[in-house]
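Long-time lurker, finally posting.

We've been working with Myb domain protein 6 (Perilla frutescens var. hirtella) and I want a structural starting point before designing mutants. I don't trust myself to interpret raw outputs, so I'm hoping someone here can both generate the structure tokens and explain anything notable. Sequence follows.
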Amino acid sequence: MGRSPCCEKEHTNKGAWTKEEDERLINHIKLHGEGCWRSLPKAAGLFRCGKSCRLRWINYLRPDLKRGNFSQEEDELIINLHGLLGNKWSLIAGRLAGRTDNEIKNYWNTHIKRKLISRGIDPQTHRHLNNQNPNIVAMQLQTLDHGFKEEEHNYSNCSTTATATATAVTVTQDFSHPPQINLELSIRPPHHLM
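Top reply, 14 upvotes:
Generated this for you. Predicted structure of Myb domain protein 6:
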């Protein structure tokens, strides 16, 4: 019972994508649209599973993706939206043009969360940690440092380069009051149906 696997695992490539594979995927989607991800690899002449093709397209190859460092405005918007929505990364990504949910989640966990804690702000509740023991805040920072170093090590083994730079962000939000943001969220069909 249940759904059958998206591919036959025996004859699929795994690991880093080559330029040739990227070009095949881009050209196929330009000609035929996204369509059914389960049948796309075979139609495009790729030895990858549909899920791998979908994730490669959505997270790396789409022409509307925004690359590079996050701006201060994006940082503040992520902090404000997280205060309202919590860890709903896809909803947050919907308000930041060209950014993916996975990219925002990773950026939150490696940069913003640490900055908030160092400023004495609880990243989950967005409230000041004034009443909290300074030793607890120091332990939270150590835990984040350890996790960040592990992620940095994991990224160094990937084919794509991950930059681990810490930049200062000035947060002018008063976290004792909920942020005022007009979300105007809407649901729309996927890109290929538009």
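Before you design anything, note these points.
The radius of gyration is 20 Å.
Confidence is low (pLDDT under 50) at residues 151-173.
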